[in-house]
Design goal:
The chain has two domains: 149 residues, Rossmann fold (3-Layer(aba) Sandwich); 85 residues. The protein is 52% helix and 10% strand. Helix 1 packs across helix 2. The protein is elongated.
Length: 243
């Protein structure tokens, strides 16, 4: 029997992954004086979705190391990555502070699922690789803090997704068996984390994650949802089957 629904945040409840991708793309384009275009970063960003900030920056630095180091001559690798983070966060925080922009990226149907399962007395959890500060900003903007029993961010774990640590910690806090938990994710790294924790996983894909999720074939087709309008019915059908 399913007793708890665990939601990822970025790309699942709100399309902040799109904003994150754009903030990295803008920062790297500026830092490389256009040698790396925003489109190049956006086209490659899908494989970094769901990783910790350190994981994303490490991946992007390795991918664009040559132009980054050429345009930031004299800085070592660590300093270049710190510069990426600083530049990108300034852009991203401006985006998060734009309430009109942020609200236009809310995931309507996924948020409706959260409200439905909460009303139906399931335990509800947020398990995100976002940093606490950014996660809090988004949670407040969506008005969902009171609908969550547990909120875990990157500050609460050592190893980020795709490692299952965050989901193991959720399980311990809920005092439930893995099979009693249902995870809603959007990214391949998130899916891997949920499955490695032994939990049931649904993927609600988006343009950044869709191709990688389908190509990996980690989930049966019934658990991969490309049209979020189908999410509530598919999840509740599964819950009924598990009773």
């Amino acid at each position: 029997m399913i007793k708890a629904i665990i939601f990822d945040l970025d790309g699942t409840l709100v399309h902040t992954e799109v904003l994150k991708a754009e903030s990295y793309a803008q920062a790297i384009q500026i830092m490389t004086k256009g040698a790396v275009s925003q489109k190049m970063v956006l086209d490659s960003f899908g494989k970094y979705v769901g990783l910790s900030r350190a994981g994303v920056v490490d991946g992007l630095f390795k991918e664009y190391k040559k132009p980054l180091t050429e345009h930031l001559d004299g800085l070592d690798s660590e300093a270049v990555q710190e510069r990426i983070i600083t530049s990108r966060l300034a852009i991203y925080h401006q985006m998060l502070n734009d309430k009109t922009l942020l609200s236009s990226h809310f995931c309507k149907y996924n948020l409706e699922l959260l409200r439905r399962v909460r009303k139906d007395n399931f335990r509800t959890v947020l398990a995100t690789m976002s940093h606490r500060f950014e996660a809090d900003m988004v949670i407040e903007a969506m008005g969902i803090r009171g609908k969550l029993d547990i909120i875990l961010t990157s500050a609460d774990i050592v190893q980020g997704k795709p490692h299952p640590e965050i989901y193991h910690k959720v399980q311990e806090m809920l005092q439930m068996e893995p099979e009693e938990c249902l995870v809603i994710e959007d990214s391949l790294n998130g899916i891997k984390a949920g499955l490695a924790a032994g939990m049931n996983v649904f993927a609600v894909t988006n343009p950044l994650t869709r191709s990688e999720v389908h190509a990996a074939k980690l989930l049966a087709p019934a658990f991969v949802i490309d049209d979020p309008k189908e999410l509530i019915n598919r999840v509740y059908h599964f819950i009924e089957m598990k009773k």
